[in-house]
Design goal:
- The protein is mainly alpha-helical.
- The protein is built from 21 helices and no strands.
- The radius of gyration is 37 Å and the shape is flat.
- The N and C termini lie far apart (about 85 Å).
Length: about 525
């Protein structure tokens, strides 16, 4: 192969079929694993836990450092259960989470958007390959003329792919900036349209809002709600054009550069073609010298002029057609970049937590539908964890030990009560794990109270406690109007303060919400006026 062409590329692929199939299979597998990595990673973790001899369960069972922690949980059981907690928490959402996610997307102006589907990713890859082939044709005749043919092919392919990937990356960045700028411009337009007596003198980006706190700024102006959720807003709250300018400069440079290279290549080809045609005409003239039919000099000059004009007309036609084709090819490149930029702008989330909110809501039409799916996933994950915990408990029971606490923990009913849902309840700090003492009414009441706000706790309460009275009030919860002011505390602060006050984080959040509502009526803090 002396030149880069589709035929040469096809010949290269056919000559290395095994390598070509391997590369294509690897790329397809990599894209699939990337797209489904969360499920693939969870599956591989489960497989690794159950592998004999070297798996997690087998290694924990052989570990001699076995001891009973607080609440009769064996340390190895805790280690194994912790691995399933992150995925379990992902599906520990309630109806309030669903409504907060919808509210978040509405306030940031991204309710109708969605993440990039797989067909768009495949289309982007195809466009990159098309660009690479186009660059390959442009560069093939000018890459290291003193290098060998194979080296030139490798350098041409690598350089073409590099330029195509760079073009796509810049187009993606420009598309993201385009969507980001549209939201910032919309917020500024809303701010400018508001009455000057009600708005601030200078537009500023407010404190970011977490997904679960989306309802906290219901009373704020719409432009503040939007800016509190858009990421990477600059100090002046103005659109950013750096990525778009870089993309425009690079793409225009590549389009013009490709046209110039093709035009210079055409000049070289044109010179060689004209010389060849003139040489053929001169050879025909020399072959007729001395013939009785030889034309007079005046007639020969006319004939030579006609032949020269014919050559010139042919070259003008070829040049015009070639230049038109080159313009079309540059236009196609610009169109490909425009399509890539457009796709990047419509399948992108500018909100800090918009992607998480979309993930939580796009599969479900109602909160009840989401809750049903969440319940099924939690049940499946708990079943996977319980299977490994029971397997670990069986291996620990078969091993000889002199620790009486471990023996008691592995005995009969107490061991069976240590399942994953009880561990999730224990981690939620709603109640204690099972103990050898008879259950009293106090833990039952605590579980019943916590079940109202957490689907995890509700499941565990139903499985390990008798049915409590549905109207039983939560004992020991102070009135919000008489409690310390929690209105400025974040959710992280409330988690830290839960131990200090002896209340759960959910109870503190409810007190905070009640205080915010009371403040609007002037009843909080004490002595405030409406």
């Amino acid at each position: 192969m002396d030149e880069f062409s589709l035929a040469a590329l096809r010949s290269l692929i056919l000559a290395n079929q095994l390598l070509s199939v391997g590369i294509i299979s690897f790329l397809l597998a990599a894209v699939t694993i990337y797209a489904l990595w969360e499920k693939v990673g969870y599956f591989l973790m489960r497989v690794w836990h159950g592998v004999p001899l070297v798996g997690t369960v087998a290694r924990l069972a052989r570990n001699s450092d076995t001891k009973v922690e607080d609440d009769t949980w064996i340390n190895h059981e805790v280690t194994l259960a912790k691995a399933y907690v992150p995925r379990y928490k992902k599906f520990n959402k309630n109806a309030d989470s669903y409504r907060a996610a919808l509210d978040y997307l509405a306030k940031v102006g991204e309710s109708g958007r969605r993440a990039r589907p797989y067909w768009v990713l495949l289309l982007t890859v195809v466009l990159v390959l098309v660009e690479a082939v186009g660059f390959g044709f442009v560069l093939s005749g000018w890459m290291s003329l003193d290098a060998s043919t194979n080296d030139r092919h490798i350098m041409t392919v690598c350089t073409a792919l590099l330029l195509a990937v760079a073009s796509t990356f810049l187009a993606e960045a420009a598309g993201h900036a385009l969507h980001h700028n549209s939201l910032v411009s919309k917020a500024r337009h809303w701010w400018q349209g508001e009455d000057t007596s009600k708005r601030s003198r200078q537009l500023k980006s407010p404190k970011p809002i977490n997904l679960e706190d989306s309802f906290n700024d219901n009373d704020a102006p719409d432009y503040e709600q939007m800016l509190a959720r858009v990421k990477d807003v600059n100090a002046k709250v103005e659109p950013k054009y750096t990525a778009m300018i870089c993309c425009a400069v690079f793409v225009l440079a590549m389009a013009v550069g490709a046209f110039v290279v093709r035009a210079k290549t055409l000049d070289s080809i044109e010179t060689e073609t004209v010389n060849s045609m003139r040489a053929d005409a001169s050879a025909q003239t020399d072959s007729g010298a001395g013939s009785p039919f030889e034309l007079p000099e005046s007639s020969q000059a006319v004939n030579d002029g006609a032949e020269e004009q014919t050559i010139q007309d042919k070259m003008d036609a070829i040049r015009g057609a070639s230049l038109t084709t080159y313009v079309i090819l540059s236009a196609i490149y610009l169109a490909i970049q425009g399509i890539t930029l457009w796709l990047a702008s419509i399948f992108h989330f500018a909100g800090v937590h918009s992607r998480d909110a979309w993930e939580l809501t796009h599969k479900y039409k109602t909160a009840e539908e989401m809750m049903d799916d969440m319940d099924q996933n939690r049940t499946a994950i708990a079943g996977h964890a319980d299977h490994k915990i029971r397997k670990l408990q069986g291996l620990l029971a078969e091993r000889s030990t002199t620790d009486s606490a471990v023996l008691d923990a592995l005995a009969g009913e107490l061991s069976s009560k240590r399942d994953f849902k009880n561990y999730a309840l224990h981690k939620a700090d709603q109640t204690h794990a099972p103990s050898s003492k008879p259950a009293t009414n106090a833990p039952v009441a605590a579980v019943a109270t916590a079940a109202v706000s957490s689907p995890v706790v509700a499941e565990v309460a139903a499985s390990v406690t008798p049915a409590p009275s549905a109207t039983a009030p939560a004992a020991g919860v102070p009135k919000a109007s008489e409690f310390d002011d929690l209105r400025e505390a974040s959710d992280e602060d409330l988690d830290l303060l839960s131990d200090e006050y002896g209340l759960s984080a959910e109870q503190l959040k409810r007190i905070k919400s009640t205080q915010l509502a009371l403040a609007k009526t002037g009843k909080f803090p004490a002595g405030a006026t409406a």
